[in-house]
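Supplementary Methods, section 5.1.

A reviewer requested that the exact input to the structure prediction be made available. We therefore reproduce it here, unchanged from the version used in the analyses.
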Amino acid sequence: MLAAVLHDFNDLRLEDVPKPQAKNAGDTVVRVKSCGICATDYKAIKGIRRNVNFPFIPGHETAGIVDQVGPGVTHFRIGDEVICQPSGYCGFCQHCRVGHTHYCEHAFSTGGDGPADIRPGAFAEFMLTKEQCLFRKPGNLSFDVAALTEPLSGAWKGVIQYSEMKVGDDVVVIGVGGIGLLCLMVARAAGAGRLLAIDPSAHARGQALHLGATHAVDARDPDVRKRVYEIIPNGPDVVVEAAGPISAVRLMVNLLRRGTRWNVFGITTHETFDLDGGLTHFLEARMDASFGTTPLAMQKSIRLMECGLVNIEKIITHRFGLSEIHRALEVMSGQSRNKVMIHP
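The structure derived from this sequence is encoded token-by-token as follows.
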């Protein structure tokens, strides 16, 4: 089969590799119909993210058709249209037993990062995964939309499950690239009051306003806090950092008022920021963070899309065949794009 194999940073090659086989209990092979390019994929390919073992097939935002089933697979059949959760789990460790499958002591990831066990991903014509990682694709969702269930589930998990956004809450999203827009769309669907997007890109701010933000603020403004508090005089109820740079986390801290719930979502690099201990104590601002996904978050996100509460199609800007993946990566490096999809 054709696959995009990363041999070293900035060395992604299109190669013929052996097609995976469903040999073991619970194995399924999915014919990949669509896979989104996540920022973590891009960072791994470009060497911005260094926790990569070579050779490696990236790609973890996946939807496709079941091509093979292994021994013991009972819930899916060949030909079923499915959505793939990249993170696999044992189901039996102390974390899995309480629903924190993304903490699993025996976790694996197909094409992503996090656990020690990283398996070939979906920048390929076929991908091997486990039955437990599959969800049925609703008939009214395209494969492109369905493939973005995983990033949408991360947004739902961070904004709704962890930061407990309520109807009428004033919400600030810092960084409105792909994942930030998903956070914004989830907040809009959940009944946010004033919904602010902060980003240095005029294109990104325009997209945010088009997708439901009530206001947009330029992150390069010398006094972003003042701009935010002109719009939300009492300060935000929820702030989500979905940008990545440590400067975005520092900005988030600067926006806090008493009782703000803030979520460290976008940053994945090991950088530091300061907190005033006494001020943090008296503010009672509650910090959360969110990474990965769970079956609960995946199922909730499928429902959001199936019922039309979130229209993911609106953030897809580019589509490429697998053979064009290097062109797709060039688009990823630009400003005028949101979600870029690969069609193996």
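Residues 75 and 143 are 20 Å apart (CA to CA). These observations are discussed further in the main text.
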